[in-house]
Design goal:
The protein is α/β, with parallel strands linked by helices. Helices cover 40% and strands 9% of the residues. Strands 4-5-3-6-9 form a 5-stranded parallel β-sheet, sandwiched between helices.
Length: 358
């Protein structure tokens, strides 16, 4: 297999100490040169983040964090800590950072999928605690399927008591229709959807083109995210979490372009590309030697009856709602981030539904 990390020959000094694990060899004089964490999977929720994280952690040079989804920048942020040093130590406590210090060949990272949406809390805290800027990975998925999977997960009674608690109780007695309509109302109240006609459930193309990327949209998005994203529950923003351009834009403005890798769950699940293809891209992004994934089974996935089954009107307005946002996201990645037009130009296009008002 072609490697992205060629072998380097190093001459050791007489008596020089090396440190060794079953998976690595390092020079003792290099101890502490690797800053942790090396990567963060930011989201989106229900877009394959757990699977990708588990695949990456099968690499012999990757050490799992003490827990997946550390939430150290949102749910588990400690407001009682006042200094940057204290906050950094708190966040590093979720990793095996101290014991890894003498093994700089090894890396560790996190997958907390709430970070993508919760930018206003996470970005300044991340920059404060970790000045080395970890590599950032964003997984995406057809936003309609993502929203359905989100609803099914949150309303399911399967899981441990801790899992049920963090999912939240807010949607337990609500239908999918009601949950989605609630998010539309929230976004309308915050001024985020001036182009969406609630009665006809259609998008005004001219109004959409005028509003996106405007100062008014930035203000409305900030108003929505800062008031509609509670902590310690997963029962919020089923539609907004699928507005990928709005979420990614905040991150793209804050970090260098080469820090990001954006992929689609559909690519990782397809026969044409698949798990190994996605892992190869992630591993290259992290600067590690390529490897063959031993266990490519899906993680944290569930079988369920599609709540959209037989609800063509609901599916129809969801397609009309998301179509311009999908197009906008693809354009953002191609024109501003340099991604392949073939992969993103018509991402999640819903050809049977137009998105302009008649």
């Amino acid at each position: 297999q072609k490697q992205n990390c060629p072998v380097r020959h190093i001459s050791l000094s007489p008596g020089e100490i090396i440190t060794q694990t079953r998976r690595s060899i390092d020079r003792a004089l290099d101890a502490g040169k690797r800053k942790h964490p090396s990567f963060l999977i930011l989201g989106a929720q229900k877009a394959g983040t757990t699977s990708l994280y588990e695949y990456i952690n099968q690499h012999p040079w990757v050490v799992k964090a003490k827990r997946r989804e550390t939430h150290c920048f949102d749910w588990r942020w400690d407001d009682t800590l006042v200094s940057t040093s204290e906050r950094r130590t708190h966040c590093l406590g979720f990793y095996h950072a101290t014991s890894m210090k003498q093994y700089p060949s090894l890396i560790t990272g996190d997958s907390t999928p709430s970070y993508l949406l919760d930018y206003y809390r996470v970005i300044p805290r991340l920059k404060e605690c970790f000045d080395h800027e970890p590599q950032l990975i964003i997984m995406t998925r057809d936003p309609i399927k993502r929203a359905v999977s989100h609803y099914v997960m949150v309303t399911s009674m399967d899981g441990s008591p801790e899992q049920l608690k963090v999912r939240g109780m807010e949607w337990r007695n609500m239908t999918l229709d009601e949950v989605l309509e609630q998010d539309v109302r929230n976004m309308k109240e915050d001024g985020l959807l001036p182009y969406w006609d609630v009665e006809s459930r259609t998008v005004d193309k001219e109004a959409f083109d005028t509003f996106i990327d405007s100062r008014e949209e930035d203000e409305a998005w900030e108003r929505y995210v800062t008031t509609r994203t509670p902590l310690n529950t997963g029962s919020y923003s089923p539609l907004a979490r699928g507005l990928y351009a709005l979420q990614c834009r905040q991150w793209f403005r804050s970090f260098a372009k080469d820090k990001f890798l954006v992929m689609k769950l559909e690519e990782m699940s397809s026969n044409a590309k698949g798990t190994q293809w996605a892992v190869d891209r992630a591993i290259e992004h992290l600067g590690l030697p390529q490897f063959e994934v031993p266990d490519g089974e899906k993680k944290n996935s569930r079988e369920y009856n599609d709540p959209l089954e037989g609800k063509e009107q609901l599916r129809g307005w969801l397609q009309r709602f998301f179509a311009p946002h999908n197009e906008r996201f693809g354009k953002l990645l191609v024109e501003e981030m340099g991604y392949d037009e073939e992969d993103w130009k018509n991402v999640w296009s819903y050809s049977s539904y137009g998105w302009t008002r008649a």
